[in-house]
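Researcher: Please predict.
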Amino acid sequence: MFKACPKCGRLHPYNFVCETKRTYNGGDERKLRSKSRWTRKSLEVREKANFLCEVCKDNNKYVYDDLEVHHIVKVKEDETKLLDNYNLICLCQECHKKAEKNLIERAYLEALAKAREEK
């Protein structure tokens, strides 16, 4: 009998002890995001964006499913920007993945966030 390993994700015999170190699971940033103030701020950003992906909206596409709030400057780079409205942007999952891989320029995202806040 086999089981999925919680450390490496592979299948091992049931009594096998995997020596793989755990993968990164968010660390201190995850703890900061689990607070109620982050939940409120995330909802505030979505409301200001009218529950639309801001990148798609800028390209005349209206995507309102599977929205996520993205930190333009990562929390591990600068913890003080965790709740900064000018550092947060509402994105669909597809755009969020692109932003995480730096396929969408940081300056462009900052400009969209600034335009939303100054509206």
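Model: The chain is about 40% helix and 15% strand.
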